[in-house]
Each structure stands twice: as C-alpha cells, then as structure tokens.
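Here is an idea for our session: we take a single protein and study its fold together. Once you have written the record down, we can walk along the chain together.
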Amino acid sequence: MRQPSEVGLAVKRLQHRQHRAMSKALAPLGLSLVQWDTLRHLHSRPDASLHDLAVLTFQTDQSFGSLAVRMAERGLIERVPGPGRAVRHRLTGEGARLRAEGQAAAEVTAANSFRALTPEQLDELGSLLDAALGSDPAAQGPQ
C-alpha cells in the first residue's frame, strides 16, 4: 500500500513535468507559464483585481504587481482604475490572441501528460484529486 507521502511526491513530479512541458510549449509564443495563466484567468474573470490574480496564479501581490506592469507594457493586458485604490485588469486583443494559442498548446500538453491513462482512469484520477482537495480547506486554492 502506498504511503500518502509517496502519492504526494508522485503528484509533485507530475506537476513538475507538466510545468516543464507547458513552459516549452509556450516559449514560441513568448509567454511564460505564469503569464499564460494570467491571461487564462483574465479570460474567465474580466476586471479581476491584482490581489485576485495574484492568488489565482500562486504569486504574492508584490510579485504579481511587477508581472502585471510588464504584461501591460507588452500590450497583453490593460490596467484600469477600479473602486477606491483597486486596479482592475483586462485582456487586450493581443493578450486574447495569445491566450487562445496558449490554450491550444495546453490542451496538447495535458493530453500528452495523461496519455498513459484511459478516459475512465483520467476521470477517476480527477475525482480522487477533487476528493483529496476537498478534505483540506487549506488546499482549496485557485482554479
């Protein structure tokens, strides 16, 4: 029987492999994984705040603020005033285009990562991971 620490390490190895593959797939688009992740989240959450995007992309507010400035300078996102001191973020046309191209790369990368599993096994793995995440409120991170 596998120990929880062994399963945790296997999950981490899969995540690391997935991140390396995604970074390689996104490189021709001139995007890092965290940049593409930002574009992906802004696509589904237009006008997200800096803090929300930091949480969703596993960044600190400070590091995400620096990233957002660079992405705005590159024309991938717009930073617009929100209520109070809040800054909201939106995709530009170029950001939307690169998000879509990155999404296509992500689908191929994910399919390759899980190609050894049958569709039923993949569904079961997803359910098991959902159950594991649901058992620990601290694990309920970004989607």
Summary: The mean pLDDT is 91. Residues 55 and 64 are 9 Å apart (CA to CA).
